[in-house]
Amino acid sequence: MTAGKRNWIVAIGLSAVVVAGGVGIAASRLGARIEPYARQAAIGYLSQRFASDVELEALHLRLPGISPLRLVLTRGRGVSVGVEGQGLKMWLKGRPKAVPLFAIRKFRCEVDLESLLHPPVAVSQVFVDGMEIDIPPLGERLRPAPSAGVEPGSRQGASNLGVAIGKVSIQHAELVLEPGNPRRVPLRFDIEGLELESGGAGAPMKYDASLTNAKPPGRIRTTGTFGPWRAGEPGDTPVTGDYVFEKADLGVFAGIAGTLESSGRYEGKLSAITARGEASVPDFRLRRTGTAVPLFARFAVLVDGTNGNTVLQPVAAMLGSTNFTTSGAIIRHEASQPRAISLDVTMPNGDLRDVLRLAMKGAPFMEGRLVLHTKIDIPALTAKVREKLEMDGRFEVEEGKFLHSTIQDQIDGLSQRARGLPRNPDGDRAVSHMAGVFHLENAAMRFQKVSFGFPGADVDLAGDYNLDSDALDFAGTLKLQATVSQMVTGWKRLILRPVDRFFERGGAGTFLGIRVDGTSKAPKFGVNVAGRELEVPLPKR
């Protein structure tokens, strides 16, 4: 090879090295230029889209392993760039020192390199790992400043931001609803997985989520639509969907236990949701009694997610085989007090055994048809539910029979004597009617009036029944169809005839002042005769 040719080859080689080096430098400078630009673009987009102050700890671009010459010549067209970020936080404007509205540990996505330089930017899918959404109470949600350029929830703002995201996949997220009272514990929902799919600029996103409910704890699977996002009032962001709630433990609430299953549909906004559906608790019970009774309900409720206030529209429920309806609210009267409960319950034709099975230890002591209207109040106090429960109502029991033989035997024996049939101890079982007006407070039930009737006799009483000690303390009157002499036989009847007129009153053959004490399982009866109270051991059949 001649010296001239060698010089040309060396020159060409040096030129190639220079060109390659220049291309490499250009590509390096391009990457160095794009990364801070992309970071600022991301901050600008998020700041405008959510009317928020944004902090992004780091954003890195992962360039594909392609020829630097191709990267320069095509100016990034058709080249997919990996974007990875971490430490993303957003605050509502005006709350920079408060808890972030959004906090994301890390995220990643793929973006066309050309779109980073020449928006709009199209992102097919974003993957998020570790996210917390903190919804502040209503009074702390501030409207965005006019300079934000986006009206909350407007379609126009979303379409002018130059970014279109197709899907968002979120793992290990938590939704926190802050209470208005800082001393109250926030409601937290652990979201195991959440898939969001864009419906277009300014339109709601579709979602599919699996999460753990805060209270009572249980698993929820839900699908529906979310948005468009209300930047100034996040709690006003629309949401709608269907849900299945499984294995919810009611034992976290004082006084009750059981496992709840529910399904239905909800709609509204993050801070106020109306839910309609069905719920069942096959093993519902009061902890004190331990007797489980199946509970089923069809409901419609309005829930304020930021303060937990719940309004029950008429709820149709079934306890065992007993139908009843409930309406009312679970609300907070004072910011510094726990929640209060106020309910109206109507039971037009219930099975008395269902109610007694739930309220008492052991087997029910009576059967019959129950009509009940009551108002239930649990004030916002710190005592146990049983001690602060207040009730006002009225009830009727038709076709009542005592299931404990000792009580029914006494009633049957009295019924026979009251009709003047003391020699007929084998007659039919007496069917009782009972009605009353009551008030419950501090675990003591005061009956302003209670009437109790069975063939041949009517009883009118007033008094107290203590739920804790099962103690009876009643006084009133007993009216019997028969006279005093007609309740005995033989020579006793002849001797007592002269005194019949002293006990006849108001159309009754015998009118007596009576007292009932003891317990519901072993009551004791006494009568007042000539100012003296005597215990009356009624005979067994």
Description:
The chain contains nine helices and 25 strands. The protein is of the alpha+beta class. It has three domains: 22-236, no CATH class; 251-372, no CATH class; 404-535, no CATH class. The protein has a 25-stranded mixed beta sheet that branches. A hairpin with a 6-residue loop joins strand 13 (293-303) and strand 14 (310-319). Helix 1 (3-49) packs across helix 2. The longest helix is centred in the first third of the chain and has 47 residues, at 3-49.
List the helices and strands and how they pair.
Layout: H1 3-49, E1 52-62, H2 68-74, E2 80-92, E3 102-112, H3 113-117, E4 121-135, H4 155-159, E5 163-177, E6 187-197, E7 205-213, E8 218-226, E9 238-249, E10 256-257, E11 259-269, E12 272-286, E13 293-303, E14 310-319, E15 322-331, E16 340-351, H5 352-359, E17 366-378, H6 385-388, E18 390-402, H7 405-418, E19 432-441, E20 444-454, E21 457-466, E22 471-480, H8 491-496, H9 500-503, E23 510-519, E24 523-529, E25 532-535
Helix pairs in contact: 1-2
Characterize this entry briefly.
The chain has nine helices and 25 strands. It is α+β, with helices and mostly antiparallel strands and 541 residues long.
Relevant terms:
rod-shaped; alpha+beta; 18% helix; 541 residues; 3 domains
Radius of gyration using CA atoms only? 39 Å
**How is the quaternary structure best described?**
single chain
- Characterize the overall form: rod-shaped
Counting helices, strands and paired strands, the structural category is alpha+beta
Q: How many structural units, i.e. domains?
A: 3
State the separation between the terminal residues, measured CA to CA.
137 Å
Query: Approximately what portion of the residues adopt beta-strand conformation?
Result: over 45%
Uncertain ranges: 4-29, 142-160
Number of strands: 25
